[in-house]
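My current task is to audit a protein record that another person submitted. Please read both lines and tell me whether the tokens look consistent with the sequence. Do not assume that whoever made the record got everything right. I have pasted the whole thing underneath without changing anything:

===
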Amino acid sequence: MTAPHYIGRFAPSPSGELHFGSLIAALGSYLQARSQQGRWLVRIEDIDPPREVPGAATTILQQLDHYGLHWDGDVLWQSQRHEAYREALAFLQQQGLSYYCTCTRSRIQQIGGFYDGHCRTLNHGPENAALRFVQHHPVLRFEDKLHGTLIADEQLAREDFIIHRRDGLFAYNLAVVVDDNFQGVSEIVRGADLIEPTVRQISLYQQFGWTVPDYVHLPLVLNEKGAKLSKQNHAPALPQGDPRPVIHAALAFLNQPEIAHWQDLTLSELLSQAVQTWSLEAVVPESS
């Protein structure tokens, strides 16, 4: 059975070029969508200019194209979605579900790292303040199609989290929910480093009255020191040469069936076979 109107997505931030860990997330989401005759969208999450690398967004799109991961429709740029985020914030404010907070990171660290609702009833104005979501209905667990039931850290799940930052930027949790709903994303396939904020995102979906998508969190690629392969850890960019050996290695990392004589296939043929043999059940989830 194929899922009706399946829509998946890959949503990188332009803080650097794609590396092998990024390819795992991109390829996994691509194969999951294509195996269900679904649409696969690409969104550039460029809402944090201080962290962006000039030219990285263009490079990311070129890398996806080079590796044969062709998306459907137009790329959505978060930098062009500010009005939608403002509307979402206005809705929450009208519902009495947000408030301004002037607490510093150092204060929150001093009380154990989780925000305690200190400003919830102080009626601060917007001056030099972040906007927090009032967490009336915490989500303490959710179902992941790879991991099964995942239990949240209860303090994190109950926290009034930031939805608009003190520096005027929109928070990731708000933007990702608004955009996934706008694009009709039915299943989110991404790296296991994003398991933790999922319960916050689900609580926003529920507060907006939107359909919560399904979730799949793929295993992370680790470097030789056991740390997540990431731009912050200076992971090398994807090679610019023949993409087929790298795609083959990514399929092996995802524990997919070996494709016979893959060296003799074109990139398009290799990806087509990978779609046909794709098995989410074969992927080995994070051991954590």
Summary: The radius of gyration is 20 Å.
